[in-house]
Design a protein that fits this description.
DNA polymerase, domain 1, 2 domains, 5-stranded mixed beta sheet, 5 helices, 2Fe-2S, metal-binding, 2Fe-2S-bd_dom_sf, oxidoreductase, iron-sulfur
Length: 163
């Protein structure tokens, strides 16, 4: 039995300790935002926060997570009361197919928890590990800039103004 703290709720999970976090989130906890993409930690669609840092849930065994705070996109807000990052992504219409968006949101949230005024280079570096095949990168970057502004900061030396 492993105890996990996910989105502020404690869960006792009875699975093999080597089980990847992504499988536990989706199969045992019914949290489906994080997606299975490559299974190798290369595409980022499975990204969640562990102690406010982005991690690839597809390659992180749950044995490594006891006593740590796990946050998924579901933990950032609700449909009725979306979190700032969720709201910014919606307002910028950042999703096309939406497959990468939970990973993008998790990375944006991690960045903005670290600093509300990242540089353009910091923002781009933070988002780089998640692949978007639909080509909505510019809208995603606008959403991160908007979220930073909504948190009272902003992206310094930004290439595009926040609308």
């Amino acid at each position: 039995m492993i105890e996990l703290e996910v989105n502020g709720t404690s869960h006792r999970i009875n699975v093999d300790p080597a089980t990847p976090l992504l499988y536990v989130l989706r199969d045992d906890l019914d949290l489906h935002a994080a997606k299975f993409g490559c299974g190798l930690g290369q595409c980022g669609s499975c990204t969640v926060l562990v102690d406010d840092k982005p991690v690839f849930a597809c390659i992180t065994p749950i044995a490594a997570l006891a006593g740590r705070m796990i946050t998924t996109v579901e933990g950032l807000g609700t449909r009725e009361a979306p979190g700032i990052v969720q709201q910014a992504f919606a307002e910028e219409q950042a999703a096309q197919c939406g497959y990468c968006i939970p990973g993008m949101m998790a990375r944006a949230e991690a960045l903005l928890r670290r600093t509300t005024s990242p540089s353009e280079a910091e923002m781009r570096a933070a988002m780089r590990p998640v692949l978007c095949r639909c080509g909505t990168h510019m809208r995603i970057l606008r959403a991160v800039r908007r979220a930073a502004a909504m948190r009272g900061g902003g992206v310094t030396d930004a290439a595009e103004p926040v609308r």
